[in-house]
Design a protein that fits this description.
4 helices, single chain, 4-stranded antiparallel β-sheet, about 25% helix, about 160 residues
């Protein structure tokens, strides 16, 4: 599903938002603190602060459907992935360096936009024992970069 370019893109200094929808058809959304590729790139793992996302995690446990958006603020390049097999997994502390690197890169990415490091660190604060990983296999991908191709499918079936 993910080509090499998009696989590399989602692991850069992007903003990551994970969304779900419950049985009441109301959306839930949470900003993630990082991601990584799993199973040779066939699955994506998203790191979340579980204490801030109980409704989102309940949606995943109920219907396993997610939409994840990766956006690079400096260019507005945006990729949306959808999955129908999401699962909530325990967090592996061995992934803490990935999160630290992602947040450090994000601080550098948004600094020219006037966002102070203290704001980023506050928005993305977490306790390691509160983290979980949501893993899913992308089944559809869309370019969501503003412009004439926004919303264009770039893989899978929605």
């Amino acid at each position: 599903m993910l080509d090499a370019d998009n696989a590399a893109f989602i692991q850069t200094s992007v903003s990551i938002s994970l969304a779900t929808c419950g049985v009441d058809h109301l959306p839930n959304l949470m900003r993630a603190v990082g991601c990584k590729l799993l199973d040779g790139g066939r699955r994506v793992g998203i790191f979340l602060n579980a204490t801030l996302a109980p409704a989102l995690l309940a949606d995943i446990r109920t219907n396993r459907r997610v939409a994840c958006v990766f956006c690079l603020p400096s260019s507005n390049r945006t990729l949306q992935l959808k999955g129908e097999d999401a699962e909530v997994l325990p967090f592996d502390p061995a992934d803490l360096p990935l999160i630290a690197e992602h947040l450090a890169d994000f601080v550098v990415e948004v600094a020219p936009e006037g966002v102070p490091e203290s704001v980023v660190r506050t928005l993305f604060a977490y306790r390691p024992d509160a983290l979980v990983m949501v893993a899913f296999s992308p089944c559809a991908a869309f370019s969501q970069t503003p412009g004439p191709r926004a919303g264009q499918s770039i893989g899978g079936t929605p």
